[in-house]
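Work Package 4 report. The design task specified in the project plan requires that, given a folded chain encoded as structure tokens, an amino acid be chosen for each position. We show below one input record used in the internal validation round.
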């Protein structure tokens, strides 16, 4: 029997107040929905990074509106590009980003940001080259020095912990710690994403929270403004500071059939502070709390909520879900006035590739009189096995030129994957059948079938 994969991390409540007061900010995208920026400002947020673009063909639909609204209330703002690295695409992605998010030269605007979270299957050397090309292109186009957003583990694993990028300020993503780990030999972090579970007035649900490593005068200068102070920044929104908790996550299997059932389980616990009578206290269960299981699909940057579960009197939770595709899972506890928020480590669950299906097309008569009935039919198969329940769309077009027109939609039948329809052509026609792709199947188009007049 395969042993469950189990991971856990220390609570976000372990974040403690530093002796230095950092300016607080957020980062967000369209997933946060409508934002009331006046309330965000009133809650002590000094800056906000917003998703602007992804790859070379996507623009976040809320970016322009959020930039204008943040600027109107005096929040420093900046745009980030979610990278989709592929060989030869760095310049195109950089130009797309600057064209949609630029020009980055107005007062109140923070430097452009490269968000590095996926590799695009590039090697370490290829990803270093891609990253360098994107950064230098954006710097040439904007005159600003871009910021690199990354996590310590990603930078060390996929860029070989390179020390060649110190020219660019570091925005490090490291949750559940009192001080972030700095990869790549950077002498310091400039921004620190400390949690994805913050609560800020004016924003529904949770939001990523960040700190700036410097004074308000330093932050103003970075945003092309004057002013601020060299004194410590005033505190912004806080993360719940109840008793620290730890939440674990286990998967009953880490490889599943497409749409197979996987059971996720874990425990939410809190460890009391040590005392003379209990120098090594044992964890105690956190009962009757609702935890949320989330998933990030392979190749995606977005987390989606899968389901919720309530911990038992022993702090345990257990939930079974269908796994439609390869994804990484985590469970989170948002915290309350008694217990601080916490988040598990990541558990990947992989599914096999989509099934390759084939579709063919035949006719009972290759030649007919005008208006004579003829059956056109075929089978949807995977290898030698018929596939039932597959959608089949049948199209026709003239013998010469013309466009394809759908004439029927059928469903393949057991046990052979059979489908059919009848037609009464008045003149020669060409037919084809298409079974569309889904999460489980690769789409396919049949041979083209010609029916002529006698």
């Amino acid at each position: 029997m395969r042993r469950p994969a189990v991971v856990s991390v220390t609570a976000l409540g372990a974040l403690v107040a530093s002796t230095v007061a950092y300016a607080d900010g957020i980062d967000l995208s369209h997933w946060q929905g409508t934002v009331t920026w006046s309330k965000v400002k009133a809650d002590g947020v000094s800056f906000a990074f917003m998703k602007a673009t992804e790859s070379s063909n996507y623009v976040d639909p809320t970016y322009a509106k959020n930039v204008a609204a943040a600027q109107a209330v005096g929040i420093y703002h900046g745009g980030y590009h979610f990278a989709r690295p592929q060989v030869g695409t760095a310049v195109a992605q950089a130009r797309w980003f600057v064209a949609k998010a630029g020009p980055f030269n107005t007062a109140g605007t923070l430097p452009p940001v490269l968000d590095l979270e996926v590799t695009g299957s590039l090697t370490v050397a290829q990803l270093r080259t891609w990253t360098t090309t994107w950064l230098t292109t954006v710097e040439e186009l904007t005159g600003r020095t871009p910021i690199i957003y990354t996590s310590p583990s990603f930078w060390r694993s996929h860029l070989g912990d390179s020390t060649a990028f110190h020219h660019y300020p570091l925005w490090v993503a490291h949750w559940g710690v009192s001080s972030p780990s700095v990869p790549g030999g950077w002498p310091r972090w400039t921004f620190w994403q400390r949690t994805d579970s913050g609560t800020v007035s004016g924003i529904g649900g949770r939001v990523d929270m960040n700190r700036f490593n410097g004074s308000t005068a330093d932050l103003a200068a970075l945003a092309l403004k004057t002013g601020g102070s060299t004194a410590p920044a005033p505190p912004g929104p806080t993360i719940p500071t109840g008793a620290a908790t730890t939440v674990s996550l286990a998967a009953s299997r880490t490889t599943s059939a497409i749409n197979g059932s996987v059971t996720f389980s874990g425990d939410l616990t809190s460890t009391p502070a040590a005392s003379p009578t209990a120098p090594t206290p044992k964890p105690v269960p956190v009962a009757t709390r609702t935890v949320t299981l989330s998933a990030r699909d392979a190749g995606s940057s977005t987390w989606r909520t899968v389901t919720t579960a309530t911990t038992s009197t022993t702090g345990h939770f257990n939930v079974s879900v269908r796994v439609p595709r390869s994804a990484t899972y985590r469970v989170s506890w948002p915290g309350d006035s008694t217990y601080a928020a916490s988040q598990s480590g990541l558990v990947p669950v992989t599914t096999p590739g989509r099934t390759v299906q084939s579709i063919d097309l035949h006719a009972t008569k290759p030649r007919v009189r005008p208006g004579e009935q003829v059956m056109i039919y075929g089978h949807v198969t995977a290898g030698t096995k018929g596939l039932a329940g597959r959608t089949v769309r049948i199209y026709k077009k003239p013998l010469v030129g013309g466009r394809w027109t759908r004439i029927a939609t059928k469903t393949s039948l057991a046990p052979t994957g059979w489908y059919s329809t009848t037609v009464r052509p008045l003149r020669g026609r060409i037919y084809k059948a298409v079974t569309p792709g889904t999460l489980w199947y690769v789409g396919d188009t049949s041979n083209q079938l010609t029916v002529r007049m006698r």
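Residues 111 and 146 are 6 Å apart (CA to CA). Validation will be extended to a larger panel in the next phase.
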